[in-house]
Amino acid sequence: MVDKSKENKKISIKINGESTEFEEEIRVHDWKLGKAQTAAGEEKLEDQGFEWILPDETPQPPKEFKKINYVSGKKKKKRQSFKNPFHDSVNLLMSIIGAVVVGAVLGFGTLKVITNTDGGTVPAATLQDDTAADVTGGTAAAAPVQLKEFSTSVLQGGVFSSQESMTAMQDTLTSKGITSASIEKDGQWFLMLGVSADVETAKVLGDDMKGNGVEVYAKDFQLNAKEIKASNEEKSFLEKANGLFAILAEESSNGVVNGKTNESAAGSIESSLKEIEGIKVGQEPIVQMKESIVNAATQTLSVKTSEDAVKVQGELLGYLELYSSLQ
Q1: How far apart are CA 202 and CA 219, in angstroms?
Q2: Cα(46)–Cα(274) distance, rounded to whole angstroms?
Q3: Which of 45, 60, 180, 202 could form a disulfide with 196 if both were Cys (CB 3.0 to 4.6 A apart)?
Q4: Which is nearest to 237 in space by CA: 326, 300, 314, 131?
Q5: In which order are the strands placed within the sheet that holds 188-196?
Q6: Does Transmembrane show up as a keyword for this record (predicted)?
Q7: Which of helix, strand or coil describes residue 118?
Q8: Amino acid 134: pLDDT
Q9: What spatial distance separates the first Cα and last Cα of the chain, rounded to whole Å?
Q10: Segment 264-304, tens digit of pLDDT
């Protein structure tokens, strides 16, 4: 067989219509020859081989550690404690004393509670009033309050420029059994011998005084408005007491003239008296005023003679004098 590859070794190419021939040697590789060379290389590697060298790692047993106890050369001596033979006795004695003291305190407290209980139960209202009481006598603290003008008809015994002159005249009247009151106003001293609801009744009262040799003048008298220090309850008392004063002045003056009072006024007097008695006051002048107005109201309700009415007039004069001195 002829190898065709060897016969056709020329290549013809036409360029611009002209034919040109080229010769090229074409190599043909034999794949069987390559396979034989590869097998020969593998056999050579198998002949040479590779030897692995590993380190000697034979396990060693762990070392044994022994505990070493260190003992000092000197052995400490154990300290012996001294036991007090009286220790237990002292503790017992202190326990007994403590028990006695505690028992005595508890006993004293119990006795005090029992004693207070025997004294009677204090009403809750009384306790509340005592707690809120002021040092002035059981009322709230005083504060500035404004008093209105106070007017009444009076039987005046004279006007004096000094208190000494007025006091001398007052002593003279007292020796004759005539009750009076001194009132300071605008730098002068007024001597009052009676009060009434109106000037006409006051004049009638004055006729009886003139018979005893006393110069008197019936007139309307007014105390100016002023500011004083008082509690709210004391202010309420003064307002109600001044209203009751007008009623008592009328009834007592009629009682002096006629020997009796108007029975129709008893209801008003009793209701006003009940209200006033329930008002708590603390300042000493106001306490005395309350006593005077209460006495005057009580006596007016039981007037039977002119002499009874004169006593009421004396209480009202005392109230008027105290009222004028309030500050």
Answers
A1: 8
A2: 144
A3: 202
A4: 326
A5: 181-185, 188-196, 150-160, 217-223
A6: yes
A7: helix
A8: 43
A9: 166
A10: 999 999 999 999 999 999 999 999 999 999 999 999 999 99
204 burial type by CB count under 10 A (0-12 exposed, 13-18 middle, 19+ buried):
middle
206 φψ region: left (φ > 0), alpha (ψ -120 to 50), beta (else): alpha
d(CA 289, CA 279): 12
CA dist 256 and 50 (Å) reads 161
pLDDT digits (tens, 9 = 90+) for 245-259: 999 999 999 999 988
Mean pLDDT score, 64-89:
53
Q: Could you tell me the pTM of the whole model?
A: 0.58
Asked whether 201 and 257 are in contact (CB, 8 A), the reply is yes
Most confident of 63-72, 104-113, 197-206: 197-206
Cα angle for residues 94, 99, 105 (degrees, 5° grid): 125
The mean pLDDT value for 185-191 works out to 92
Q: State the Cα–Cα distance between residues 279 and 240, nearest whole angstrom.
A: 10
In whole angstroms, what is the distance from residue 262 CA to residue 207 CA?
22
How far from the centroid of its chain's Cα atoms is residue 46's Cα? 112
Work out the pLDDT band at 224, boundaries 50, 70, 90. very high
CB-CB contact of 234 with 286 (8 Å):
yes
The pLDDT, as a whole number, for residue 176 is 85
Q: Which amino acid is at 216?
A: V
Hey, which residues does 194 pair with through a beta bridge?
Answer: 155
